[in-house]
C-alpha cells in the first residue's frame, strides 16, 4: 500500500497537540483545570496552551503525553492518532490517517521499513498484552460453552417441573372449588401450597 497525501500534512507532534486540545475540550476541562490535574508545578495553563498551540520550543514530551493520557482517561495511542489529515512520519514519508493509526497500533508496517523487524516487535508487544495463550483461551471457551449448555438444560428442567407443580396446585384448587368446598377449605389448600414454597 503506497503512502499518500490527504489534506494538510501534520507532524506527529501536531497530531498530539490537536488530539490533546480536542480531548481536553471534550472532557470540558479548561487549560487551568487540566494543568492542575497534571500535578506538576512546571505544567501551568500557559504552558499547556503553548503546547497545544505549538508555541513551545519543544512539543509534548513522552512523559507529558503519558501523564496527559492518564489524566484525560484515554489510552496513550488516543493522543497519537487522528482522522483529520495525512501524517508526515519522516521526510518524504506521508501516510493517510487510517494507515498511521494501524502503524501506531502495531497492525501494519510502513513502506520503507523492515517489515520483519516491525512484525517481530508488534508480535512481541501483542504477546505481552495477551493474558492467555490461544490454547488456554480455547479451553476456557469450550468449558464455558459446556457450563452454559448445562445451565440452559437445568433451567429448562426447572421450568418444566415448576409448570407441572403449578398445574397440580391449580388443578387441586379447581377441584375443591367445583366440588362445592367452603371458603375455609379453599383457603386451607392455598395456605398448604404456600407453606411448601417457604
TrEMBL record:
Database matches in InterPro entries: Lambda_DNA-bd_dom_sf
Name of the protein described by the UniProt record: HTH cro/C1-type domain-containing protein
Taxonomic source organism: Plantactinospora siamensis
